[in-house]
């Protein structure tokens, strides 16, 4: 029986000669057929990034030996390495509050098979979207948060992530700020959608601010969540033209489509193992 | 001999019933053939805006009586009114420092006839672009500015504006901050290009900041100049996608095309008498 | 009890002086407070278009007398007039085949309240999407079509439209060509999404054609359906950049987001009574 | 004295294992420091493409031995190879007719130093733009073309290209169709700008056609010229939104900015040796 899946290496290391050669030589020696290879050098920072994907069929190493065999090369070049397999189904938790356009969109992408993931869990600080979770047959955990109970509720949430073996958390217009502790538990594993073209209009009510400032273009930004609110590494942004005719309400309405598409693209890129975060920026291999 | 020109009224006033009717009735009673009419109501602020353009040929009032005859209506509705004629050739002064891409673009648009304006004067705080002025046969005034001489040099500049009967000042990457006094002399008559998507990255070196922040889209913004730096009413913005591959230098290179097109569109809209500024925002009739 | 709804007149007629004045005068005489007014003159064709929306609260005429009272003006100017009320909930039927991304998106917009419509019926030539209809509690009519039964099945479909009192038919990737007879029954009442930037790549498999031609941008087009396939009046288009890296499969994947957003905007504009079709083109008041 | 320049290899060959490894190994063995490496595999066609750029400083081979030494690898993999040096100043001829916006833009980019090229020659079938050539100090050759003299005038033009050692011909709204013979002399060395979003609206008057069809977006396309009119490999495209308000004249005016930016980007990509044409498509390494 053939293995149609592919393997993906995500590599970052100090820039130096011979890395591409070393990696591709490793794959060739084990009969690896490269499907895709992208590399990027940040010459200012002196950092090298690489994503290489190859067919597992015909590859001379079994999956569970790749990391070990590659570690020689990795160590020699001080690489940080991630190894992924294309047929792994990531487990995604969606966090929501009351707005449902983003979660609707994500669940539909799962439902139509566009996203090859499991979505076993929705977490919310409000009960409003439980019926939607029911429609799609997804568990819904109501974790109401007050000033007093925040720490313990966050711990409960972290426990849920473990219990459900969650790989990726998507904040689909979740209106709670995650604590430093929470963020550190899931580095580059929490994706948020912010409803402005960051760094313009950080914080609450960005459409109101955009209207107030009279901008002619609005945007949305998806980023990994760090303990600095709205300051994490940007994965994707998109914009659209507006005009003086647009009220705050119409900015909100139009912006919803931006939020949906930007969040879905960021999640897609992450799921395809195409994103490498460093120094509050990202390399997104296309 | 026929008069192929048109007249344009730009109106703003407190919102109330019957304004469109009053204005269109006035034009009809004098046999005015409306070419274009746009109106906008800012319901939050309770302000009404209107632009109406009609053919002068066949219009029963001579040009110099329109304002007086219309003043009855204007007074009744507390209107602020501007009257323009499409065959008037505005006189534009361009302010530059050392970067020449924007002025190149503006002079070419004048040269090809796209802009129906006179550009009698270029003002600069550096001598570098005098040869370009010579190529296009435009006067070049070198007004070098130091901390010590700023006030008097600005007065000299203001005098030049009067001397050359300048209607519109375009800051085409002019790297000096204009004083409050200067700005107040030419309200909504100075257009600047800022090389970022405002309000993101105000101030100097926005491309460096954009690179540092790792944005996936860069922009440019054209606005009327007020005494608040980079805070004046936005007329036009445009953006383009970038990626981790773009160095600061490549952002600067790509951004030049944004700056050119955004500035040229803002100047065009102003020259067509399509822009009404209010409360740090603009209505740009399309 | 107050009537918060508004009334909308959509007007087209031969261009002539005094139309705006006549319409606004009519509204003013009946104490109509205009919320929005847009007009457009196609000077080549000599046709005038207008959309005016005013508050019903305080308006001196009851709803059912507006048409009659306005007919004096309408007749004098040979107007084609549509009168709509903002609180009317249009009834929409969605036609699908097997692809579900567009219908997912439309149903979600209905579900979140973005679209203020009833969607009582889904028609399909395949059974595949019946479970989705069930999820949203919408009737699903399977109308399988063969060469032999096409005429009678279309008649059955037309009967369903009457039975369900359908105002608007949305073809959400419905892969059957409607007959002339069907199209004529619902003039400017059927909206289709075509998965290319028309008029490029008419017909089947446009993403394959786009890939073959090596375009750097793909698009989607929403239009009213006429008996000429892919030739009806265009309501909305959107595009996105692609590159040599995009396979046909990735064009299809990326294109789905274009299709969703373009179709949803076209439907929105229609539902807001903002679209006037003429001569195979549209005026879309913004 | 140091050599700050870089060398660029553009490679295409049948897809097979080990190519990236062979090329990077070659560079490493000669102490080449890779600045940029991009590869692409067209899996349908089974063709591999690669662009690799490395510093000449420190590289162990002198420039004139690179091709020979690399030929071993090239032959083994049946590679088509181009070798370029970043400090070579290409010689560009611009062909124009009467419209000057594109040539204005190109000359300004040369003048400001954005384009590191020589533009020694402008060829035109009309005398109109000779003054512009004079302004920029460029030779202007008037080659008037009639049905009768087309063949001999083309030969004269070809001779001029040889005489001026032209590397790249840019058709900046040149309104003559080049013969098969002419096109074959300069394969992938002639870049044209077409004022539509190809393949929509091939041929003359695309803005009129776009207006007639009522599209909501217009575009421009830059492509290599082949003997099939408007059918050559597309290098770059760009679009912008328009509306029912845009007359043909306003489409033409807005389109000029698209044409300028699309042509300039295509020329830039070509000058950076980033374009590989195959099967009427292009790979444009970013």
Percent of residues of chain A in beta strands?
25-35%
The count of β-strands of chain A is 13
Mean pLDDT of chain A: 96
* Fold-level CATH name of the largest domain in chain A: Rossmann fold
Terminus-to-terminus distance of chain A:
31 Å
Uncertain stretches of 5 or more adjacent residues of chain A: none
* Percent helix range of chain A: 25-40%
The CATH architecture term of the largest domain in chain A is 3-Layer(aba) Sandwich
Q: Major sheet of chain A: order of its strands?
A: 7-6-5-8-9-10-11
Brief rundown of the structure:
Four copies of one chain form a homotetramer. With 286 residues, chain A is of the alpha/beta class. Helices cover 33% and strands 29% of the residues of chain A.
Summary tags:
homotetramer, 286 residues, Alpha-Beta Plaits, Rossmann fold, 7-stranded mixed sheet, 4-stranded antiparallel sheet, 8 helices, globular
Structure description:
The structure is a homotetramer of 286-residue chains. Chain A has 286 residues and is an alpha/beta fold. The first copy, chain A, folds into two domains: 6-85, ACT domain (Alpha-Beta Plaits, 2-Layer Sandwich), CATH 3.30.70; 91-284, Rossmann fold (3-Layer(aba) Sandwich). Chain A is built from eight helices and 13 strands. Chain A has helices at residues 19-29, 63-76, 101-111, 130-136, 150-163, 180-185, 206-213, 248-271; strands at residues 6-14, 34-42, 47-55, 80-85, 91-96, 118-124, 139-142, 168-171, 190-194, 217-224, 234-241, 275-278, 281-284. In chain A, helix 3 (101-111) runs parallel beside helix 8 (248-271) and helix 7 packs across helix 8 (248-271). Chain A is globular. The B-C interface holds B 17-18, 20-21, 24-25, 27-28, 31-39, 41, 43, 241 and C 17-18, 20-21, 24-25, 27-28, 31-39, 41, 43, 241.
């Amino acid at each position: 029986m053939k293995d149609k899946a592919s393997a993906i290496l995500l590599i970052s290391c100090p820039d130096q000669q011979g890395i591409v050669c070393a990696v591709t030589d490793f794959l060739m020696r084990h009969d690896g057929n490269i499907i895709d290879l992208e590399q990027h050098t940040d010459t200012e920072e002196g950092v090298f990034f690489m994503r290489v994907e190859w067919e597992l069929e015909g590859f001379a190493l079994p999956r569970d030996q790749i990391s070990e065999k590659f570690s020689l090369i990795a160590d020699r070049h001080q690489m940080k390495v991630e190894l992924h397999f294309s047929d792994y189904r990531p487990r995604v938790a969606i966090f929501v509050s009351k707005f449902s356009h983003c979660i609707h969109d994500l669940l539909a992408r799962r439902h139509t098979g566009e996203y090859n993931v499991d979505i076993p869990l929705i977490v919310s600080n409000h009960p409003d979207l439980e019926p939607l979770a029911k429609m799609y047959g997804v568990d819904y955990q109501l974790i109401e948060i007050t000033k007093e109970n925040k720490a313990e509720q966050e711990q409960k949430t972290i426990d849920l992530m473990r219990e459900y073996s969650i790989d990726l958390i998507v904040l689909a217009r979740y209106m709670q700020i995650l604590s430093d502790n929470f963020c550190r538990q899931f580095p580059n594993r929490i994706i948020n959608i912010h409803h402005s073209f960051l760094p313009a209009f950080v914080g609450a009510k960005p459409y109101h601010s955009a209207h107030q400032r009279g901008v002619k273009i609005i945007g949305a930004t998806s980023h990994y969540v760090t303990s600095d609110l709205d300051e994490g590494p940007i994965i994707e942004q998109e914009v659209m033209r507006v005009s003086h005719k647009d009220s705050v309400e119409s900015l909100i309405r139009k912006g919803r489509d931006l939020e949906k598409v930007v969040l879905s693209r960021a999640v897609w890129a992450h799921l395809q193992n195409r994103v490498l975060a460093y120094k509050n920026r990202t390399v997104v291999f296309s």
